[in-house]
Design goal:
Layout: H1 2-17, H2 32-42, H3 46-62, H4 66-83, H5 86-117, H6 120-126
Helix pairs in contact: 1-4, 3-5, 4-5
């Protein structure tokens, strides 16, 4: 039962990360759109805008190689699944978990740096929606796409 749940989780993760480079990749906060959205939503001043830019850029640098690593690990995982290699599945999924940890830690540190620059009123506006500082809209990061890949024919 645990193996089935693990395989379903891994397959769903694979679908999320199998998106092409045209989509926002593994790594957290989006590009300039995140900065613009936060500036407009929270009415950031110039000093805060610079702090947001710096925090997001540091995050991008810290996580720059994760997309390629995740792609490689997903390829290895698919091969292990097809081969029925339970020991290899354990090793690869542990590596995937480590990449997720790196990404989330970097993303959270960027959000903490941004939050530290906010005024009390802006912090009140953010409230429990810390996810908005991590690349998502008012409620948090964008949801994962569900369902089969699109048919691009």
């Amino acid at each position: 039962m645990k193996i089935n749940l693990l395989l379903i989780t891994i397959a769903a993760t694979g679908l999320v990360f199998a998106q092409g480079p045209a989509r926002r990749g593994f790594g957290g906060p989006g590009g300039p759109g995140t900065e613009t959205r936060l500036t407009k939503t929270l009415n950031l001043n110039a000093t805060q805008q610079n702090a947001v830019h710096t925090a997001l850029q540091e995050h991008r640098v810290a996580t720059s190689g994760l997309n390629d690593q995740m792609h490689t690990l997903n390829t290895q995982l698919h091969a292990a699944i097809k081969a029925g290699a339970a020991d290899q599945i354990d090793k690869v999924t542990a590596s995937i978990g480590a990449l997720h940890q790196q990404q989330l830690a970097s993303q959270s540190k960027a959000a903490a740096k941004i939050y530290a620059t906010l005024t009390d009123d802006q912090k009140t506006q953010v409230g429990d929606h810390i996810g908005m500082l991590m690349g998502g809209g008012p409620g948090g990061p964008p949801p994962a796409r569900r369902g089969p890949p699109p048919n691009n024919n």
